[in-house]
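batch_manifest entry 22 of 60
target: Phytanoyl-CoA dioxygenase family protein
source organism: Verticiella sediminum
requested by: lab member K.T.
priority: normal
notes from requester: please return tokens only, no post-processing; we will run our own comparison against the previous entry in this batch. if the run fails, retry once and flag.
--- input ---
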Amino acid sequence: MTIPDQSAPPLSRRYQELGFEFPIAALSREAAQRYRTRLETSMEAVGGRFKGIYTQKPHLLFKWLAELASEPAILDVVERVIGPDILLWSTEFFIKEPGDERFVPWHVDDTYWHIEPEIQTTVWIALSDVKLENGPLRYIPGSHRQSPLPVATQASPENMLISGQMAQGVDESVAVDVVLQAGEIAVHDSKTLHASGKNTGMDRRIGIAARYLSPQVRSLSSRESALLVRGTDRYGHFDPEPWPAADLDEAARKAHAIAAERRLVNMYGARHQDQPAMR
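--- output ---
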């Protein structure tokens, strides 16, 4: 694997050994609340729930989300994992209402990514307090160093992964619950097993996953695009994406439609047309 140029010390020995690190302070509670308000306003504008086109690369549709994923404190953490040049590859909403029966099954992120070298990291951003009753993210320590587990496909309305993938044979007895306060983040490797359960609490659980790559990374399938959020891209393996000028404006919608389609084709090929409706 190519080693990124590290201008800052690695994130931590814990990240290297366990495949994750949390909690990391990134935003003040006041800033997290401001982003939450903008998110909930956007949800209402699109019908009360992000689904369909809003489940893939929504940072290209919502200016506030591009701003959130580019917060200096978040990028400082990313830089310590992948180096000073950073591409924002994708964002996804993981929002569960109180009493929500939906869950995220055990999986690893890179099952359908088709990229190399894997100089990447995922940041999970909490915009609400995430307690045990809210269905927090859960990690299996050290799983990024182990052989991949077999994967079954079980798509359902409750499964929040559009691929329906479910890793088999996970030892949940060693799972770690990712309890976070609003404004804190967790960061994990693409090969780290993780999941989350139902929200049995009284508040909406709001999490956003932002996935970052070094520009050294290239797609092994079809060509994709990404948004440069720090440093420079000296490789050109990804087409540059435009920063949205305003939420849901016409130019943003056009750029997003192209980028999201390319992302789905890279992950699933022609099969993506047969995926269940994006949840």
